[in-house]
Structures are given as structure tokens and as C-alpha cells.
Amino acid sequence: MSAPITRTQASVRRHLEATLLPPIVALVVAMVVGDVLILSYGQSPSTVYRLLIDGTWGNSYGFGQVIYKATTLSCTGLAFALAARAGLFNVGAEGQLAMGGFAAALAGLALPAGTPALVAIPLCAIAAMMAGAATGALPGVLRARFGASEVIVTIMLNFVVLALLNYIITAHLHVPETLHTPEMQAGTVARFADSFESFHGSAANWTLIASIVATAAVWYFLFRSKGGYELRAVGLQPDAAEYGGVSVSGVILRAMMWSGAIAGLGGINFVQGYKGYYEEGFAAGSGFLGIAVALVGRNHPIGIIFAALLFATLSQGGLAVNALVPKQLVDILQAVVILAVATAVPEVQRQMRVAAAALVRTAAARKAAS
Amino acid sequence: MNALGFLLQTIRIAVPYLLAAAGGVMSERIGIIALGLEGLMLSGAFGAALGSYYGGSAWFGLLGAIVAGLLITGILAVATLRFKANQVVVGVAINLLVVGATRFYLRLAFDSASNSPRVPGFGGEGGGMFASFRNPIVYVGLVALPLLAWLLYRTAFGLRVRAVGEKPEAAATLGISVTRIRVQGLMLSGVLAALGGAYLALDQHQFTDGMTAGRGFIALAAVIFGRWEPVRVGIACLLFAAAETLQIQLQGAQLVPSQFVEMIPYVLTIIALAGVVGRSVPPAALGKAE
Questions:
Q1: Which of A17, A147, A279, B222 has its CA 20 to 30 A from that of A114?
Q2: Do A288 and B83 touch (CB under 8 A)?
Q3: Range B272-290 average pLDDT
């Protein structure tokens, strides 16, 4: 009996299905819930959705805002995904992001005003990454050395870091009457609005390049380098990796540090690209949304780009439709998407296992009958 | 401020922690990571405010809180037990969901972005220290953890709970319905956490957006710092509450910046996890609801 497709083709198709089905299912579920909520508010779903698209991708300002938010989200998403590929849950992106932004602001303040941009901008960005890495290192060490749950340590550390930054700002470093540091004279990045008049008013800026580079770098590291192979091995089967000669605790520590570094990089968007200072709460929520982005993006850099754009669109879209429906609707939808993907992933795997088992049984039965 | 006043203030602050931590102990002991405590507390606060508002008395508020807690727990249970979704992600999602849903409903029903109208509480219209103690939830909070200790270590149900949390496969071979124990445990956990939030709302006579302000995470810190044992967890809660009370009292003296007092529960938990104060061993089947 000839098979219509090769076994490799079948397994690739199965892999794609398992990867893409959950986010698609999640989006459908979210849309249904969105429809219900919009109707409960007395509005028509099609009107609201059209307004949402118009307000985000339909004009340059909205699109700029989407790009801006997606830049931060892709960084926090990559951070979570990188750690997740190593089997670790870095829930600390909120704190790492804040530390990164703060470090970039400090670096910008420390550098003299005349520093050439080519030197100042990367220096601030590197400062951000180092601060994020340091914040990720503590949970990494505790996990690698003591087996302490990085989930709990990162969550706790978020609060510690935010309280610490709040103290430093309010007690020492803030401009009076505000909760932000003084504007930095070196290391700022131009906004799109400076070059393209149509983006006027939006926060979109050229730090987008940093997040694109980070995405490409993470892709290359994960799927084309030895270190990435080892990292993924540790995530899939730590004992086997150890047996194969990989230092699991080394991988854990490095994964957490790099994860923190990328999350810290997400902070330069606001600090270097938008306002030129660190402000308390500048990216509140982006850390947790990064988890959603990584989840919907299936922990893959390409998926994360799409997921970041999706969540950024929802976020900005909520503001656009605020006249019709409370923007908090979007908060609910984001949580629904997370829940839907989280439940869909194991369920899709289970259904595929059931289907595969049924196939094996019918094939065996056919063989026995012949 | 005398010793009695300090004690009363500490208890007032501790009640939400005690209740939410009791819920956390219950949840984690049956193997479900209690990251959604914050969302459960907030939902209880919201349910209490709504129940009290629409029902006219704080007792309806209690009912509302229990309903809200069970509703959110239902979502949690279905996602983690039926669909085997990752418990950390579900917990984070629950927290986000409750924040969004409460804000949405606040806009829908009360046309406000941040708070509900004033609702009846337990202490009559007056406020202050002693009015808070007319709230029955205080006494539930005080006995919650000791009762939980009795439940866990002296009843058959408690034994099954601990078995399910340590080695569900063994429990299943003994004929224990693992799923049923988990559902019952989650429901109890949800109601306890919701009551913790209800106390906040009824004590302040209104619901404010995000009013739990991270207390669910402090409760989780207490659970871990107390090594999942109810009495230890209770002491941890009282400790954290006492530090908060101390900081409030010393506000004028500016001895220690408030942010550092805020950090105490979290820093202590991190230190505990590093094994500095004895080994921190969670229930063996925690997080693996296969």
C-alpha cells in the first residue's frame, strides 16, 4: 500500500499543527468573548472591531503607537521565551525591564553631553542589558545552586526591585514634583516623528532596531548555535543533557542572565527613545504581557514578533475604541487569550496523541486482517 | 501608641494575609501553585462590594465574595485540572483577568474608572479601630490557619489532601479520587482567599481598583516562608503585619524608609528559598497536575 505523503512530511505537518493551532484557537475564543462583552455594553461588535483596526493600523499615529508598544513587548516576550526554552519560568521581566530602563537613564546622565551618538546610544543600551542580567542572575544562581523555584524568586524580586527603585527615585534622584529622573543629555534615540511628519505625536522610535536585532540574535542562538542547542536540551530533558556532558547549572545561570538582559533591553524604548528619562511605572504590565506574547508566539522568535504586534494592537486599540467600549475590555481579552492558549497547548497535544493512537490501532487491525 | 493598640492594628492588617495564606496553603498542599491568590482576593473584594451594594447589607457582601471566589476558582480548576494548562501561566492570567473584569464592570455599572459607591460594612457607619472588630471575618481569619492545621493533620480528608499533594499516583492506587480532592481543596482555597479580599472591601466600605495591592503575593510569600505548614505560615503573616504596623507607627520618625519595610516579606522569602533558614521543600507534586 503506497502512502500519499512521506513520513517526514507528515511529522512536519503535525509539528506545525501542534504549534499553530493553539494560538488560532485562542484568538477565536477571545473574539467570541469580546463579542459577548461588546454586546453587553450595547455596542455592535463589527463597529468596534472596525474602529479598533482603524485606530491602530489605519493611521500613522496609531501604527506608530503599535510599533512602540510592540518593541517593548517583543523584548519581554523574547526574555520569557529564552528562559522557557531552558525549562525556566522568568516571571521577573517587570523588574528586569525597570532596572534596565533605570540603568540606561543613569548611563545617559553620567555621559557628558557632547558624547557622539554612535558611542552613547550603545553604551546606554549595554548598561540596560547588564542591569537586567544582574537582576536575572540572582534567581539563576538560587535555582542553579539551591534548586530554589525561579518562579517564586523572580516574582518576589519584582517587588523588591520596584520598591528599591521607588526609594532611589523619591529619595534622591527625581525632578521635583515628578517621579522621573532628569533628562539625559547623551544617548537619546530619535523618534520616527522627527523624520516622518505623519508619525507626529507617537512614541515610535529607532530603538525598534535594537529589538529586531535581539529577535534575530535569539533566533540564531537558539536554532543555529551550540549554546542554543544545549539550552534547548536542558529545557527538554535535563538529565539527558547532563549525561551528554552539558553543565546544566551553567546553562540555567546563563539562560536567566541573558533572559534578564533582553528584558532590560526592553527598557531603552521608553528611556532612550521616547522621554529621555526614567519614570516610575513607565512600562507597567509589559513584563507580564511578555509572558502572554511568548505563549502565543509559542516561544519562537518569529511567533513572538506576530504576538507582540497582536498584543500591541489590542493595547492601542483599546484606547481607540474607548469612546464606545471601556478600554478595560482589552485587559479582559488579553487575559482570555492567555488562558485560551495555556489550555489549548496541552489539549491540542492530547488530541493529537489520541488521533495518532487511533491511527496506529486501525493500521495494526488492517495488517492483522490481511 | 500602646501595646494593645499595636496588637489590634497588627491583627487588622494581618487578617487578609491570614485568610489568603490559608487559601494558599490549601491550594499548594493539593499540588496547585497558588499564584492566583491576588486575583482571588480581588474578586472576593469585588463580590463583597457588589453583594453589599445590591443586597443592602454586609452579609450579602459575604455571600457575594464567596460566589466570586468560587467563580474564579472554577476557571482555575477547569484550566489546570481538566485542560492541564501550566499553573504559573494560569495564575498570572487569573490575576490579569480579575483586574480587567473588575475595572470593566466598574465602568459598566457605576460609570467610574476606579471605585464603587460606598457600601454597607459590618461596623455600622462609624469607622476606626473597634468598628473593624465587629466584622466577623476577623474571627474567621484568626481561626483559619489553626483550623487548617487541625484539618490537615488530624482528619482523614487532610491525610488525603497531603497524599494527593505528595504522590497522587499512590493516592490513586488507594482508591482516592485525586480529582475530587483537588476540586474540593481548590474551592476551599478560593473561598478563603476571597474572604480575605472581602474583609478589605467591607472594612473600607467600598471597592477600589486594585485594592488588594499585592497582598496576595505577600500571602504567597508567607506560605513559602512558613514552609507550607499552617501554624508557621500564620506566624509569618503576623510577622509581616507587625512590620507593616511598625512602619506606620514610625512614619514620622523616618528611621527606615517605608520602601525597605515593604520589601521585608519578599526578601525573607528569597532568603528562605536559598535554604539559609533550613530546607524549603514544597509538596512533591506541586505544579504537576497530570
A1: A279
A2: no
A3: 78
